[in-house]
């Protein structure tokens, strides 16, 4: 859990230090602006921008029932963030597994990627796809199960 929030905490702390330096130097407006920018960066790189994750076993079971893809991801991953943002509202139609919270999810990703924890890994109909194009993932949501 701490690893998932690590980057966000570092960004907030760095932003606070930089902002305090600017404010102490007589530039409160710049300090506040920097604090806001660092806060936004921390938020975007936090687990908060992703749907609530489920365990790998539960995601596989749900996918078997409803035919929706399973997305294995981790906080701080730029490619995961890109996929999440480009999917827009359809993001809630997928089953999301945070590999830093779920060892079984991390093991599934390593099995699909020659021992590497490369994310996002999207499993559609039992077949893993590493870092797929978001448009392709959206197409998979519109196909019948």
- Apparent shape: elongated
Task: Identify low-pLDDT runs.
Answer: none
Counting DSSP H or I runs of 4 or more residues, the number of helices is 6
Walk across the major sheet and give the strand order. Answer: 2-1-3-4
Instruction: Determine the N-to-C terminus distance.
Output: 34 Å
Estimate what percentage of residues fall within beta strands.
Answer: 5-15%
Largest sheet features: 4 strands, mixed
Structural classification: alpha+beta
Number of β-strand runs: 4
Q: Portion of residues in helices?
A: 55-70%
Q: Return Rg in Å.
A: 18 Å
Mean pLDDT: 89
Q: What letter string, H or E per element, gives the SSE order?
A: HHHEHEHEEH
Could you provide a short overview of the structure?
By secondary structure, this protein is of the alpha+beta class. It has helices at residues 2-24, 28-44, 56-66, 78-87, 103-112, 134-142, and strands spanning 70-73, 95-98, 121-124, 127-130.
Keywords:
alpha+beta; 4-stranded mixed beta sheet
Give an overview in words.
The protein has 145 residues and is an alpha+beta fold. 55% of the residues lie in helices and 11% in strands. It is built from 6 helices and 4 strands. It has a 4-stranded mixed beta sheet with strand order 2-1-3-4. A hairpin with a 2-residue loop joins strand 3 (121-124) and strand 4. Helix 1 (2-24) runs antiparallel to helix 2 (28-44) and helix 4 crosses helix 6 (134-142). The longest helix is centred in the first third of the chain and has 23 residues, at 2-24. The protein is elongated and about 60 Å long. The model has no long low-confidence stretch (mean pLDDT 89).
């Amino acid at each position: 859990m701490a690893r998932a929030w690590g980057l966000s905490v570092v960004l907030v702390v760095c932003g606070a230090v930089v902002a305090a330096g600017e404010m102490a130097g007589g530039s409160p407006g710049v300090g506040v602006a920097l604090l806001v920018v660092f806060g936004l960066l921390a938020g975007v790189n936090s687990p908060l921008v992703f749907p609530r994750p489920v365990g790998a076993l539960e995601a596989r079971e749900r996918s078997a029932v409803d035919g929706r893809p399973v997305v294995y991801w981790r906080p701080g991953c730029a490619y995961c963030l890109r996929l999440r943002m480009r999917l827009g509202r359809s993001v809630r139609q997928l089953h999301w597994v945070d590999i830093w919270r779920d060892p079984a999810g991390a093991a599934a990703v390593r099995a699909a990627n020659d021992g590497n924890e490369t994310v996002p890994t999207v499993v559609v109909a039992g077949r893993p796809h590493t870092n797929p194009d978001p448009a392709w993932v959206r197409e998979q949501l519109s196909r019948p199960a």
